[in-house]
Every structure is written in C-alpha cells, then in structure tokens.
Amino acid sequence: MSVTLQNFCVLGIESSCDETGVGLVDVCGTDLPVLRAHALFSQIDMHQAYGGVVPELASRDHIRRVLPLARQVLTQANRRLGDVDVLAFTRGPGLAGALLVGAGVACALAAALQKPVLGVHHLEGHLLSPFLSADPPCFPFVALLVSGGHTQLMRVDGVGQYQLLGETLDDAAGEAFDKSAKLLGLGYPGGQALSALAQSGNARAFHLPRPLLHSHGLDFSFAGLKTAVMVQAKKLAAQQGCAITALPMSVLADLAASTQAAIVDVLVAKSLAALHGTGLERLVVAGGVGANRLLRDRLNAECSGRAVQVHYPELDLCTDNGAMIAMAAAMRLQAGVQTAHCDYAFDVKPRWALEQILTR
Ligand code: KG4
Ligand code: ZN
Fold first, then answer.
1. What is the CA radius of gyration of the chain?
2. Count of structural domains, the chain
3. 22 CB within 6 A, ligand 1
4. Measured distance CA(110)–CA(113) in Å, rounded
5. Which of 105, 142, 175, 230 is spaced 20 to 30 A from 194 at the CA atom?
6. Residue 93 Cβ contacting ligand 1 at under 6 Å
7. Is residue 213 included in any domain, yes or no?
8. Closest ligand to 318 CA?
9. In a domain? residue 12
C-alpha cells in the first residue's frame, strides 16, 4: 500500500558506514522541508586502531547507537515517536551489515507504528544536503559529489533528475586524501587531518601529478596521485634514513600541502569545465571532501569571478548524517518521485548507482 501525504514529519536513519545518524524534518505543503533536530555518533575512534572501517564492528555499533540517537532527536524536536509520519533509511550504497541495521530498525518502527517507510540512496542524501543550509540552492545546478567512496559531477535538474557528467575511474577524492594521510601517519579517515597539517606546509614543495587535468572529459583519476605521494615520501625517508612517519613535521606538512593542492586543482578545474559545458551558473558541492577549506576557498574565488553561485551543506552536514536522509526522503515524497509504502519487507543495496533511481 502506498501513502500520499501533504504535511508530514520524516525520521531518517543513516547507517551505511561508520557513522550512525538520525534526523527529523517537517514538510509543510510545497515549502522546503525544515530540519527540526539531528544527532550523530561517529565510530571513528573505534576503527582508528585498525586503520580503517571493520564492517562487523560497524554493524554492531550501529545496533547500539541507533535507538538512543532516535530518542535524542525526538526529545530535541519535542516530538513523540507517534508523531512521526514516515520512517526513512539509507538503503545503499554502503556496507551490507551496517545498512541492514538502519533498514531493520526503520522498518520495525514503521511496522509497530503502522506508518509508511522509504529507502533512500545515500548519495542523493549528500546531493540534497545543501537544501538544509541557510543558503539553499535552486534547480538546476551542477553538483560535485566528493565523498570517501565517490567522486562525481552531475547535472541536477530537479529531485530525481540527475545526469552523470563524469566520475572517477579509480579512487575517489576522499580516498586519495585518506590513503595519503595514512601513509603520512595521520590516522583514519585522514582527510581532515591532512588538510589541517597542510596549512603549515608549502603546496609547491613537491610537484605531484594532476591526473586527467587537461583531458577533455569530466572524469577523474586519483590512483596515480596516491602512488606518486608514496614514491615521493619513500624517497624522502630513504634520504633521511628514517620511516616516512618519522620525517620532520615540516616535510610532512609540505607533502600534505602538495597532495591537497593536486587533488583540489583537479576538482576545481573539472567543476569549472562542467559549468562551462552545461552553461549552468550554479554549483553545489556535497560529500565529506566538501568540508575542505582549500576546496571551498578556491571554488569561491573561481566562481565569483564568473558570476557562478556556489552552495555547500553546513560543515557538520558535509559528512554522513541522518538529516540528509530525512531530507532526501522528504523531498522525494514532496516532489512525487517516490511513494512511501507500508510493506515492511526490506532489502538493502550495498552497490547501487545513483543513475538507477532516476525518474527520467
Ligand atoms: O561523505 P562522507 O562522510 O562519507 C562517504 O560517504 O564516503 O565522506 C568522508 C570523506 C573521507 O574520505 C574524509 O577523509 C573526507 O570525506 N573528508 C575530508 C575533510 N573532511 C572529511 N577531506 C578533505 N578535507 C576535509 N576537511
Ligand atoms: Zn557519505
């Protein structure tokens, strides 16, 4: 049974990887949905010791966190569980076991409340997260989706109307940050730490490749950059007769700054090329790497000179969170591109291309 709604409240659950997130948004007619509360628990400290996400530990921790977080969100929003009209969860892509926790809890709550449920694409959550900001965009726009697992440029004409313009052929931008950071001994996920260290470094100290910078297409490739960082770091360590992680802080900072500059140069150039190619004058940046200060500064500078508006999610909503899942569900229902249903049999899609949810 599908359900049609006008004014409603959505509770969204995110559990695709190493963050448990819950968010609550209200929809009133055709107005932009409003975020009432959200809460997050990051498992990063738990996975640090292993140098990356351990899927089984991630799933078990989501189980521990999700209901207390839901309670916290309801209290913050001054609502009771019975006030929730729709339950939403991240259906994919992500870690299968982790996704099943959010899906299972959302469907169990929905079944108990006899309310409809809806599975959401994680990347659509990121893509629509700037609509939660104080300065929301309007359609159409070019979106640069830069997360730990994805790097894509999309043309976005409306909710569910996404055209892939280009994507990474190998590693994602976040992966390039994380793998370089790990090599330099900055822990996991190292994007933020590498960017912090880069602040005291010289971005011109080492010349690292900018893969596909001058190619005509809008695809990316970051695997070669990661290798180049490793070759450079090993060379420096051999010269100094020490381990890479024991290199002087100033050298590590120069490596970090040079790596960040190479990644950002490519992201900025391809975003500008996508704007030019589509003729659109609005850019939306979403996903964890969208929190990067240099990327924001460079895009702001380049776009202001071209009369292009750039929109970002609020900093705390750049990385994974439940607010974006509630928001994506709310916007999909509002736009009529998906209906919520009361069939509580669920599945998850660990591998799921965004193009597969298109409405045209
Ligand atoms: O979107 P997200 O939370 O998770 C995925 O869906 O993958 O993105 C996480 C990624 C990680 O690779 C992390 O290192 C990166 O975003 N990240 C950053 C920064 N903050 C998070 N990368 C560069 N600079 C940052 N400030
Ligand atoms: Zn994400």
1. 21
2. 2
3. no
4. 5
5. 142
6. no
7. yes
8. 1
9. yes
